[in-house]
Specification:
Largest interface: A-B, 23 and 28 residues
Strand content of chain B: over 45%
Largest sheet of chain A: 6 strands, mixed
Structural class of chain B: mainly beta
Oligomer: heterodimer
Chain lengths: 110, 116
């Protein structure tokens, strides 16, 4: 079964601390994984995807097929990073269907 | 260019009624997907349309239906509303509806449906 698991509902850190939001997936085949972010009162937006191998707003995520993980990391959290973060898996190549995790709320305190 | 728009933004209905939600994708986008977002279940895929054809359907009862028009605008309909249908309904669009670095899905602001 295709599944995305985000074990933490809430992650609280202080500004400047490292952040790691966990994401594990279950998928038979080559997965395509994403991190989406939803800031307060804003729409859901793409943060990054593993196929782009990019760093956005200081965030990075590496696909680890052995551990079936796609954790989101940032070395130094900023207050403006406070938001809801969703890990998502594209179900197949020729589709936009996404399977989302339940999300992790990141709170960054000053 | 304008983003994905959804109308109405808020809707209050009573049990047993039906409702139609509308989504206008970004100009040029041919793929439209719908998701239901609730505090308990999170984001769940409803259906996906590409060039007026339903390409995928999630695990929702037949009361949930949708369609896509030739201009790529999409509507979803929920008949015989139940209390549990109260949710934020999100629409997303993309150009190609497929994998690839050049195909990104953009989400609308959602329609908040409350069933009393």
């Amino acid at each position: 079964a295709q599944r995305v698991t985000q074990p933490e509902k809430l992650l609280s850190v202080f500004k400047g601390a490292p952040v790691e939001l966990k994401c594990n997936y279950s998928y038979s085949g080559s997965p395509e994984l994403f991190w989406y972010v939803q800031y307060s009162r804003q729409r859901l937006q793409l943060l990054l995807r593993h196929i782009s191998r990019e760093s956005i707003k200081g965030f990075t995520a590496d696909l680890n097929k052995g551990e079936t993980s796609f954790h989101l990391k940032k070395p130094f959290a900023q207050e403006e990073d406070s938001a809801m973060y969703y890990c998502a898996l594209r179900a197949r190549y020729n589709t936009d269907k996404l399977i989302f995790g339940t999300g992790t709320r990141l709170q960054v305190f000053p | 260019k304008a983003g994905v728009t959804q109308t109405p933004r808020y809707l209050i209905k009573t049990r047993g009624q039906q409702v139609t939600l509308s989504c206008s994708p970004i100009s040029g986008h041919r793929s439209v997907s719908w998701y239901q977002q609730t505090p308990g279940q999170g984001l769940q895929f409803l259906f996906e349309y590409f060039s007026e054809t339903q390409r995928n359907k999630g695990n929702f009862p037949g009361r949930f239906s949708g369609r896509q028009f030739s201009n790529s605008r999409s509507e979803m309909n929920v008949s015989t509303l139940e209390l549990g249908d109260s949710a934020l309904y999100l629409c997303a669009s993309s150009w190609a509806g497929t994998s690839g670095v050049y195909n990104e899905q953009f989400f609308g602001p959602g329609t908040r449906l409350t069933v009393l």
